[in-house]
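Take a look at the protein record below and flag anything odd:
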Amino acid sequence: MREYIESEKIATVVQSLVYSYTAKGNELMRAAIDKSPHPEVKGQASMALAQSLQTQVRLAETMRADPEQAEQYEGFLGKEMTQHLLNADLKKITKESEDLLERVIEKYGEFQHWRGTLGKAAEGALFEIRNLAIGKVAPDIEGEDIDGAKLKLSDYRGKVVVLDFWGNW
């Protein structure tokens, strides 16, 4: 952070930090957002931090629901990060993630991402946060069943539904 935070090449580093669930990883992504003079670095860091924060929210929810898993995660995350996640305000973290994704869409959407552009990737991540979480109403899906008959997911509201998406590519 001290010597390379202003380098354009740090964009690759911050992209890989999406899988870092540590305070230091978060600190480096935040520093890149705040201190880099390069818009692409700011965009990549914002996207990576948003995704990392959402993963941290899911980890915290899992640990809160099952204390035994919290013990297992502590070996991976470390005691400090585990305690941070167990005590964190998950709504606040989710809001920060949403704000970062909105900023990516608004300011950095044209830069390349492994999913096409940062804008498209951020739109997908934002849709997931807002629409595909446990307890949310599933978006309506239209298609054909295995026999070719048309179906709409909303026709089954109130019933238990198992969806199996698959492709042949």
